[in-house]
Amino acid sequence: MTHFLALLAIVHFVRDIIAGIYVGTWKVFFILPTTRAIITRIYDGTRKERLAVITQRWILALVGIGLVVAFLGVWLMQSPSDRQEESKGNAGNLGSYAHGAMANFVPVEEDVKPAVAPFVGGDGETLTLADFKGQVVLVNLWATWCAPCREEMPSLDRLQQHLDSEDFSVVAIASDRGGVEAARTFLAEIDANTLGVYVDSTARIGPALGSFGLPASLLLGRDGRELGRLAGPAEWDSDEAIALIRAALALR
After folding, report:
1. Neighbours of 98 (CB within 10 A)
2. Residue 9 reports pLDDT greater than 90
3. Exposed, middle or buried, 10 (CB in 10 Å: 0-12/13-18/19+)?
4. Which of 212, 71, 238 has the alpha carbon at shortest distance from 152?
5. Which band of pLDDT confidence, cut at 50, 70 and 90, is reported for residue 30?
6. Higher pLDDT, 87 or 41
7. Pairing with 75, which of 17, 57, 208, 242 sits 20 to 30 Å away (CA)?
8. What angle do CA 50, 56, 60 make, to 5 degrees?
9. Model confidence over 132-156: pLDDT tens digits?
10. Contact by Cβ (8 Å): 135, 154
């Protein structure tokens, strides 16, 4: 009997060992791989999302680079003369009007915006040429002591009368130490009553605009950029001058 009980205990012990080995093996070969598979799927999902984001960014970067290369290619295919004409806008077309009374008119060769130079209006207010942006402006530099200016001024007055509109102004700026009253008196003496009174008593506006003689005229477009200039006196009420100004008004 004692031997039988001992044998039965040994059988139960062996059975428990075998069961433990079976359960451990099941855990190793089933539970752990299953867990690992789940973790792998989660990691793979995150990695796929990362790859999708990275791929999207690379695609956008390549598209941007492609657009830049295409733009540079089109620009480089243009001839230097084409690029120069583009920078000048339509100002170069005004050269065809440089004949007759406008023979000395010189269109700009590049995109030029006049320097900011203050002057005084008839009411004593401080102005710059930027205040006339939106209009085609004929800037005329003159002085009361300038004999050619005296001869030219009536034609400027008639030009203003002929093309009087919100789109065009003659801005005749007197470089005169006498100030506003001296300029006003001068204009009244020659019956130039249509012109506004503008004065630069410091005589700095001429050099600031690149002009060193009187009279001198600059034609500005609606955007305030210089279209061309004419040194010396001119008949500004002539057919050629009116055609030139009308051509400038037609530019957009």
Report:
1. 16
2. no
3. exposed
4. 238
5. very low
6. 41
7. 57
8. 145
9. 999 999 999 999 999 999 999 999 9
10. no
Tokens of 225: 């950029």
Alpha carbon of 72 to those of 79, 83, 141, 161, 180: distances in Å? 13, 13, 42, 48, 53
- Overall average pLDDT of the 46-61 stretch: 65
Helix (H/G/I), strand (E/B), else coil: 192 = coil
Alpha carbons 181 and 27: distance in angstroms, whole number: 108
Distances (CA, A) of 127 to 92, 124, 133: 29, 9, 12
The predicted-structure confidence for 192-229, as pLDDT tens digits, reads as follows 999 999 999 999 999 999 999 999 999 999 999 999 99
What single letter denotes the amino acid at residue 226?
E
What sign for the dihedral angle of Cα 59, 64, 69, 70? positive
Query: What is the C-alpha end-to-end distance of the chain, expressed in Å?
Result: 122
Look up tokens 């001068």; give the residue: 186
Task: Say which amino acid occupies 49.
Answer: E
Whole-angstrom distance, CA of residue 238 vs CA of residue 100: 9
